[in-house]
Amino acid sequence: MATDSENVIAIVPMKPLARGKTRLGMSLSAEERAVLALGMLRRVIQAIKAVSNTTVWVVGGDDRVRNMTQNLSGEWMEELGTDLNDTLKKAFELAFEQGMSALYVAGDLPFLKPADIHSMIQSSRRQGNVTLAPARRDGGTNAILVPHDVHFQPELGQGSFMKHLTQAARLERSVAINSSHGLGFDLDVVDDLEAFQHMEPGLLERLSSASESELRDDA
Predict the structure, then answer these.
(1) What residues form DSSP beta bridges with 176?
(2) Which of 46, 103, 168, 211 is deepest in the core (most CB within 10 A)?
(3) What pLDDT, in 10s, does the model give residues 46-55?
């Protein structure tokens, strides 16, 4: 009998490293931002893969993103759409075509743990609910689990959590809300760097050191 996680494809959209985390530019160099982005992606893929038999698609990015994804036994694919929401919509459709539920997970969650992914899947009640994980800072959405028979459209961006709740109500679908620590905190701005260092001293150094070898190997 298949477990709940076997019926889910996790989808992590990424930008090319040179274009990612530009709002951290006042504090970090382009190379430092790239290393940090790879470190967070590593954390996210490992958390998802630790949940039994969950497939991971990383969509977009560059050669270094592709190499890390494949090294961690994920599947990498090129950008699918014209922007983040279009790409995610098309990735959802590919998952649905396989009879799978789609789990969007942001790639910049430095505190993410396997238990957070497990709780998203459990909250869906065997993929009966649309499950949402709100971002703690800007009203965004850091994870979405959509059952394969629901025509739910991603509307990521500032204030997206309320948009997603409204859409689910319009579709007359039940919603579960997951407010776990690991899913709530994404890293986007300089204030996040300072806050996260206080929350877990040494976190950014550990994330960065985990991905420096990949950057050197691809130089």
Answers:
(1) 131
(2) 103
(3) 999 999 778 9
